């Protein structure tokens, strides 16, 4: 069984070490949300609440559509503990991470909506010859969440919502398995289902409180393993496994007591203890298996997001925020596929809103605290011993239209 999370930023790509807890991404939402560090659960004025807290959009008056992309550049360096000649850096590529939302009022109290996001993701890519190649050279794990939801206004101040997650997951993992086998490539995918529920309480004109729950999603991967630069091994062999995407809970407050200024605070809990081991099952592979197990022992973690926006004029708004993100990675099992540690992120953004059209732009700088290859990994791949340093640049652009 593969008890793990397979995720990738965007419909195509992102990076694990450069984003949120585990494989969780802060880039799954719009530029309007990223600009204020995703601290928006208690707000009511954002189209992307169709994902962050659908209940906050109950009673919307007009149909809204938003689409956009986040572009990410990740810089991870490996400093060998054995020999400076073994130092390496991760391959640098800009990654494109799309998002889409639509909000459809049904009545004065009922609102339908649809969001398409990539809330979890991972791409780490090292040179084939780097010191940790027996552990990982490329890890590309992806999900796409398509979430229809309905929000209902119970009272003038209290609303609730429920939604259905349709999740597509895909994996591509590569590692050098020695001269006899060469470069091993694992691929697999599946579609799974889950649910989401949320609530919003407008306490008074100045204070709002929001909460959202995302359920676990169980996936069964069916795929193949092949040895790319060793065709004499006989082509592809089957691979199967199970994937558990974690549940999460967001709770946030928003305040608009100050003229032109709106502030938000979100606390997020993520159930990363679902990632207990990375296990491959090879039922027909004569060269490896039938089971390969790598312990992970991740833990449940917390994240704190603080953000706000300030009205510069009637049409222009300035945004900013900060995120502290606890790493779920067990220090003894930290591996090159995700050299994770506690992370910090500073964000800024600007938005323009006309009568119907809106444009939002955001920039974020994320850095991870230095971390070291786990002792359990070093014992099996001694040349992987060393320190990882990671920085990430994110640029997001969203466009919206209100009918």
In terms of topology, how is this protein built?
Layout (H helix, E strand, L loop, with lengths): L30 H4 L14 H4 L11 E17 L7 E2 L4 E12 L4 E8 L3 E5 L12 E16 L4 E19 L6 E20 L4 E8 L2 E11 L9 E9 L2 E8 L5 E10 L6 E5 L9 E5 L5 E11 L4 E10 L17 E11 L3 E16 L2 H6 L5 E17 L1
Antiparallel strand pairs: 1-2, 1-3, 1-20, 3-4, 4-6, 5-6, 6-7, 7-8, 8-9, 8-10, 9-12, 10-11, 12-13, 13-16, 14-15, 16-17, 17-18, 18-19, 19-20
Give a structural overview:
- With 403 residues, the protein is mainly β.
- It has a single domain, classed as Outer membrane protein transport protein (OMPP1/FadL/TodX) (Porin), CATH 2.40.160.
- Helix content is 3%, strand content 55%.
- A 14-stranded antiparallel barrel has the order 1-3-4-6-7-8-9-12-13-16-17-18-19-20.
- The longest helix has 6 residues.
């Amino acid at each position: 069984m593969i008890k793990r999370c397979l995720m990738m930023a965007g419909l195509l790509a992102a990076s694990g070490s450069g984003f949120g807890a585990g494989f969780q991404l802060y880039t799954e939402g719009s530029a309007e949300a990223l600009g204020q560090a995703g601290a928006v659960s208690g707000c009511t004025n954002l189209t992307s609440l169709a994902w962050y807290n659908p209940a906050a959009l109950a009673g919307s008056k007009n149909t809204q559509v938003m689409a956009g992309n986040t572009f990410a550049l990740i810089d991870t360096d490996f400093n060998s503990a054995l020999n400076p000649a073994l130092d390496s850096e991760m391959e640098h590529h800009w990654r494109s991470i799309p998002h889409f939302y639509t909000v459809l009022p049904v009545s004065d109290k009922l609102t339908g909506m649809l969001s398409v996001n990539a809330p979890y993701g991972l791409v780490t890519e090292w040179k084939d010859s780097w010191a940790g190649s027996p552990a990982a050279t490329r890890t590309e794990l992806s999900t796409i969440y398509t979430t229809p939801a309905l929000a209902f206004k119970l009272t003038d101040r209290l609303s609730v919502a429920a939604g259905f997650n349709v999740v597509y997951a895909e994996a591509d993992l590569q590692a050098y398995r020695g001269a006899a086998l060469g470069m091993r490539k694992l691929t697999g995918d599946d579609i799974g289902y889950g649910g989401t529920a949320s609530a919003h309480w407008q306490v008074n004109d100045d204070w709002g409180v929001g909460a959202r729950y995302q359920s676990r999603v169980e996936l069964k991967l069916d795929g193949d393993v092949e040895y790319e630069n060793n065709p004499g091994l006989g082509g592809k062999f089957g691979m199967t496994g199970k994937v558990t995407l974690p549940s999460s809970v967001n709770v946030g407050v928003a305040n608009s007591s100050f003229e032109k200024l709106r502030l938000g605070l979100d606390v997020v809990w993520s159930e990363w203890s679902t990632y207990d081991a990375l296990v491959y099952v090879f039922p027909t592979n004569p060269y490896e298996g039938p089971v390969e197990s790598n312990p992970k022992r991740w833990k449940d973690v917390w994240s704190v997001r603080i953000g706000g926006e300030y009205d510069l004029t009637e049409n222009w708004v300035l945004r900013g925020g900060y995120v502290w993100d606890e790493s779920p990675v067990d220090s003894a099992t930290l591996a090159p596929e995700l050299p994770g540690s506690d992370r910090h992120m500073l964000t800024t953004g600007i938005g323009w809103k006309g009568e119907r059209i809106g444009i939002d732009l955001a920039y974020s700088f994320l850095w991870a605290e230095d971390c070291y290859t786990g002792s359990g990994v070093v014992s099996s791949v001694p040349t992987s011993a060393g320190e990882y340093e990671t920085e990430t640049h994110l640029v997001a652009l969203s466009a919206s239209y209100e009918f």
